[in-house]
Amino acid sequence: MTGRAVRVCVLAGMCCALMVAGVAFGLNRMGTVVRGDAERGRYVQDPALADQAAAGALEKLAEGDRGAAPAVRGFTEGAWKESEPLEAREVPAEPAVGALFSPGLDWDADHHCSGSVVHSPGGDLVVTAAHCVYAGGFRTNLAFVPGYEEGKAPYGVWVPTRIEVDPRWVRDSDPDVDVAFIRVRRGGHPGQRLEDVTGAHPIRFGQQLPVPARLMGYPNDTERPLGCSHPAVADGPAQLRFDCADVPNGTSGGPVLSAAGDSLIGVIGGRDGGGDETTSYSSYFGEDIRALYERAVRGSTA
């Protein structure tokens, strides 16, 4: 459930150059799509392009600095309750969940997807859907805004240093691996770790299903997040299904969280680009996603 796909041409006669060498497929004012390391499903972000994306996002945002990391919000034991009626509703913003911006002329709204901070040794890892970062190439105009609400960036604007997706997503958009991990930094704050600022969700692989869960994400035409609580169930061996109505475009990449410990067990994406009017999907967090996570945290040694 994302916005429009990456385009290689834009309106008003503004054409995007196709670079034969395979380095970049399209270029607009602040929206280059690059090939990266397609065999491994990796893109090491150009710092100048990342800073340009951050500057573009900040043109419309009021950046804040909340200091020490807050506790990650979740359900206390026994407090989980299924949404009634079973439809997504506006919920308070949370520090470890945010909107993924793509400033520039790439046919998207200012924020086109969602993401969340996942615990990692480096404290710098965001998870989202692969289709939010790679469509015919890696987006270079990404900026993550945790806790986003009504034009405010209370925990700053963070940009990629590298992006990891499964090579099967690059080859044929395999819905069973529609997951991406993004390592990030905050411009002007060298050494600051995202997890120290926002907190992070622990990641859980091989979650037994069904399980009480909740999802959360940012529609691309509103400025506050939506959420819904409902059991997550298996839909075949490689997909997680979450039945809740009115989870619209822009929520792709938002977390699916187990009520027990608020552990990350999926991201909105997978089958049918994330779902339809009544159902959301996620690639199941099994061994393939575990391997991708481990590759992301290894960083430059991978």
Percent of residues in helical segments? Answer: 10-25%
The secondary-structure element order is EEEHEEEEEHEEEEHEHEEEEEEH
Number of strands: 19
What distance separates the N and C termini? Answer: 30 Å
Largest β sheet strand count, sense and barrel closure: 7 strands, antiparallel
Rg over CA atoms, rounded to whole Å, is 18 Å
**Count of separate DSSP helical elements:** 5
As residue ranges, the low-confidence spans are 2-30
Give the SSE layout.
Elements: E1 24-26, E2 33-34, E3 42-44, H1 47-58, E4 62-63, E5 89-90, E6 97-101, E7 111-117, E8 125-128, H2 130-133, E9 138-139, E10 143-146, E11 152-153, E12 159-165, H3 167-172, E13 180-185, H4 194-198, E14 211-217, E15 226-234, E16 239-243, E17 255-258, E18 264-267, E19 279-283, H5 287-298
Parallel strand pairs: 4-11
Antiparallel strand pairs: 1-2, 2-9, 3-12, 5-15, 6-7, 6-10, 7-8, 8-13, 12-13, 14-15, 14-17, 15-16, 16-19, 17-18
